[in-house]
Amino acid sequence: MITRRNLLKGTAATGLVAATGAFPMPAIAQGAKIRLGYVSPQSGPLAAFGEADSFVLADFARNAAASNFEIFVKDSQSNPNRAAEVAQELIVDDGVDMILVASTPETTNPVTTTAEAEGVPVISTVAPWQPWFIGQQGNPTDPGSWRPFNYAFHFFWGLEDVISAFTNMWGQLDTNKIVGGLFPNDADGNAWGDANNGFPAPLAAKGYSIIDPGRYQNLTDDFSAQINAFKQGNVEIVTGVPIPPDFTTFWTQARQQGFAPKAASIGKALLFPQALAALGDSGNNLSSEVWWSPSHPFKSSLTGLSAAEVAEAYSAAEGKQWTQPIGFAHALLEMAVDVMGRVEDVTDADAVAAAIAATQLDTLVGPIAFDGKGLPPFAATNVCKTPLVGGQWRLSGEGRYDLVIVDNTDHPNIPTGGTMEAIS
Question: What is the pTM assigned to this prediction?
Answer without folding.
Answer: 0.89
